[in-house]
Amino acid sequence: MRELVKSLKQWYVEGSPVGLATVVRARGSAVHGVGAMLAVGPHGQAVGGVSGGCVEGVVFDAASAAALDGTRDRLWFGANDTDPFAVALTCGGEIEIVVERLDCRTRPHYRTLLDHVGCQSAVCEIVDLNATSGPVHLVVSPSEMYGSFGTPEIDAAATRLGREMLHSGTSGLAHVESDGAAIEVFVHSFPGPPRMLVFGGLDLADAVAQIAKLVGYRVVVCDARPVFATASRFPHADEVVHAWPHQYLQQQSDAGSVDPSTVLCVLTHDSKFDEPLLEVAVRTAARYIGVLGSRRTHENRITRLLEHGLSVEETARLHSPIGLDIGGHTTHEMALSIVAEIVASGRGRSGGALRRGVGSIRGSASTM
């Protein structure tokens, strides 16, 4: 969605009808998960994707038709091993797609949604899949709600549901009920980007920032040394902070800005910075704490941290040596290794070769 914002905003502001296809349900080894979108513009331009190519042509045609006639359709695709002419998912998964026209009549608050997504602030859209005319959506942020499904009770129930799913970072089909009335909705969540705090102003930090931003992180680089903590040194970081790492992290944690989506990369490779920082880090809600250093360095570090009063369980939270074993030598290869481990740990995966694994090759889309 974030990649579609520019085109969708242009077409929406122009008043051009857009055909919009959205994955509302996915199972198995589908290439794209719930929330993936394909939009077809007024001159047949296609942006986004819903299947990785298997059924894109059929969905494009359906979205093009929806832009013209305004009808909504629900398409289902799965594997088909019996009909050589059937459109199917070669990956063996299943997806359900809602195809509809996007315009200012049915989605009067879509510009608000796009503005929130463009600013990377948390928001969700709740689409009434039973509606046949008039506005079909609500736009809900953690503090505001735009639009109406017709009654305050249904709006309140839908808003509660949307905020619950936004908080958990999930999208999907659901039913909203109030006073005997029920509607089927699709909740499309756009949580704010998870944060990566990188400690240590070395060149590796900017390479990590560059790759981390490609997978959706908002990256902050922190260093106590003013000569290293400069924006010009880290062009790929969203923010550069000049502060003692442990003090900055403690302040962020006390302010509630370190949550279970936050990841920490400790790259200073200097015990006078690292160890006070790690004493704070293991007591935060951060889901991942990676630390640069050799195996011997880490063993010595653990010994000192235990002597400083940390528990075995707390030190077990540390990923060190940081990264996956891909044999990286260059700065960007090392950064790739680090970000790959962060993604794998968030999906509950080991990071091994897919050809040696079993089960679905896709991890959960609800965690980063």
Explain how this protein is built.
The chain is α/β, with parallel strands linked by helices. Helices cover 32% and strands 23% of the residues. It has 10 helices and 16 strands. The protein has a 6-stranded parallel β-sheet, sandwiched between helices. Strands 3-2-1-5-4 form a 5-stranded antiparallel β-sheet. Helix 6 runs parallel beside helix 7 (271-281).
Helix-strand topology string: HEEEHEEHEEEHEEEHEEHEHEHHEH
Q: Between the first and last Cα atoms, what is the distance in angstroms?
A: 16 Å
Q: Which strands sit side by side, in order, in the main sheet?
A: 13-12-11-14-15-16
Averaged pLDDT, please? Answer: 90
**Structural class designation:** alpha/beta
State Rg. Answer: 23 Å
Share of helical residues: 25-40%
Which sheet architecture does the biggest sheet show?
6 strands, parallel
Task: Give the overall silhouette.
Answer: elongated
Low-confidence stretches: 81-86, 364-368
